[in-house]
Design a protein that fits this description.
Mean pLDDT: 98
Strand content: 15-25%
Bound molecules: nicotinamide-adenine-dinucleotide
Radius of gyration: 23 Å
Number of helices: 15
Helix content: 25-40%
Strand order of the largest sheet: 14-15-16-13-12-18-19
Largest sheet: 7 strands, mixed
Number of strands: 22
Shape: globular
């Protein structure tokens, strides 16, 4: 099957006719081709977006909102079809794609369909100066959205929905590793009546297609989610052109467990926060820190629970852990298990590839638990982004806080305790953009989402996203008194 670019409402081949192979991670086999778009394709997408902008930015909020809602409805209508496509393209269990990825993609559109009707700006009366100031929030123009492979349609739409709700036109690129649901979204947008050119989707490698979007002089804002190294590179390319940038990057998130927590809830959630989506979620709690007095008990119970997880073909309803996204990624994740051995880490469970009957070439790996003693080890400092977690103990609050913050990343953290004073102290002092207390990945789309330190710049979600995708202009009017 050949995936095509979606430009000006039409599906087209890449101008230079360059293609990349698309793999099914569950089987290791090629099952399609996608364009490796070049600068010419991105220019064409930009031109379509620029032509659509005057009309779209003047389309009433009511009309924009209706179209976004319609896209959400169509995503739900095609839920099973889209979930199957996502699972095949990414290797994630079908249950996860059906329950999380695709419903969330619909929610992204529905949320911003509503949010845009409630978005407002400030007015300031300059008392004593006979002046009034108000803020106009105008769409930027043509914006670029670039997304990663781990939550393909979920994160792609998380950017596109607020961008178009705010009146922008978009040139978007999904990951070349998981292009399928982005391709299917094009058809849905046409069916929902989104005018041609408002959303243009170009497929291809980061170094060619992605680079062309970031370097385009008239694409004035880039919303990017992906690795920290890529984010730093994009920032360097974009900075001389003074582009607006939103960077959602990697994480190495602590999961801090105190003895006074609700133990059973913590244990079940920790299994999920460690291994959901094969551990390939930027928010996974990959560093588990446990209070010394429950360390041995936790170790035993956690190993038992993890050993019950079923690694299997993503399309099977009983599969808990599917395939990793690519051969390269599997090798990268596996290399950390070797690094652990060199660093003195002890594999408590897993560490080996899994052979799934009839799918021997799929990219399967056991959920892996590694015990470490030094937070400075590479396993605790570098993002692995796979089904590998480390566990280590701490003695007291001070040590726990130090260990939690002692990394370059600062995306999210999870705290398990029933002590209110501790909750408040940690919430204030954890250097992460999100702190979950006694829960994990509970999302309310109105909240600011993003990371501190090397985990990114800017916040997505709610009005933060609408602020990012608009330019604030101050209008100051002075008046004379007629009497
Ligand atoms: P990646 O950085 O390799 O790629 C992300 C996207 O950027 C892809 O579409 C890719 O083609 C594109 N890209 C690559 N090089 C580019 C360049 N030079 N110019 C423009 N675009 C370029 O990341 P990935 O491997 O796809 O995703 C995994 C990473 O994403 C992990 O680090 C993970 O933590 C992070 N992530 C972060 C969040 C968050 O919200 N903070 C969410 C999900 C994933």
């Amino acid at each position: 099957m050949k995936i095509q670019n979606y430009i000006n409402g039409e599906f087209v081949n890449p101008i230079q006719n360059h293609w990349i192979e698309n793999y099914n991670p569950a089987t290791g086999a090629v099952y399609g081709q996608i364009p490796n778009s070049t600068k010419e394709d991105v220019d064409k997408a930009y031109e379509a977006a620029a032509r659509a902008f005057p009309k779209w930015s003047n389309t009433s909020l009511d009309e924009r909102s209706k179209i976004l809602s319609k896209i959400a409805d169509l995503i739900i209508e095609k839920l099973n079809f889209l979930a199957a496509a996502e699972s095949k393209d990414n290797g994630k269990p079908i249950s996860l794609a059906t329950q999380i990825d695709i419903p969330r993609a619909a929610s992204n559109f529905q949320f911003f369909a509503n949010a845009i009707t409630q978005f407002s700006s400030e007015a300031h009366e300059s008392v004593g100066l006979n002046a009034v100031n108000f803020t106009l929030r105008q769409p930027i123009g043509v914006v670029g959205c670039i997304s990663p492979w781990n939550l393909p349609l979920y994160l792609f739409t998380w950017k596109i929905a607020p961008a178009i709700a705010a009146g922008n036109c978009v040139v978007a690129k999904p990951s070349e590793i998981t292009p399928m649901t982005a391709f299917l979204l094009g058809e849905i947008c046409t069916e929902a009546g989104l005018p041609n050119g408002v959303l243009n989707i170009v497929h291809g490698l980061g170094a060619s297609t992605g680079q062309a979007i970031v370097a385009h002089p008239n694409i004035k804002a880039i919303s990017f989610t992906g690795g920290t190294t890529t984010g730093a590179y994009i920032a360097r390319v974009a900075a001389p052109m003074f582009k607006k940038l939103s960077l959602e990057l990697g994480g190495k998130n602590p999961n801090i467990i105190f003895a006074d927590c609700d133990y059973e809830k913590m244990l079940a959630t920790t299994v999920r926060s460690s291994f959901a989506n094969q551990g390939q979620i930027c928010l996974c709690g990959s560093r588990i820190l446990i209070e010394e007095k429950i360390y041995e008990k936790f170790k035993k119970d956690f190993i038992k629970k993890v050993s019950e997880l079923k690694v299997g073909h993503p399309s099977e309803a009983t599969t808990n852990i599917g395939a990793l996204v690519s051969k390269e990624h599997l090798e990268k994740v596996k290399s950390y298990i070797d690094i652990a051995a060199q660093e003195g880490g002890k594999v408590l469970f897993g560490g080996e590839r899994v052979t799934v009957k009839n799918f021997e070439n799929g990219y399967y790996l056991q959920p892996t638990i590694i015990e470490v003693s030094d937070n400075k080890c590479r396993l605790n400092q570098e993002e692995i982004f796979g089904p590998v977690v480390t566990i280590m103990s701490f003695k007291n609050d001070k040590e726990a806080l130090h260990l939690a913050n002692d990394v370059q990343y600062g995306l999210s953290s999870t705290l398990w305790t029933n002590n209110l004073n501790r909750t408040m102290q940690f919430s204030k002092q954890l250097q992460t953009g999100i702190v979950w207390v006694n829960t994990w990945m509970l999302r309310d789309l109105r909240t600011p989402f993003g990371g501190q330190k090397d985990s990114g710049v800017g916040r997505e979600g709610g009005f933060e996203a609408l602020r990012f995708f608009t330019e604030a202009k101050n209008i100051c009017i002075q008046y004379e008194s007629p009497f």
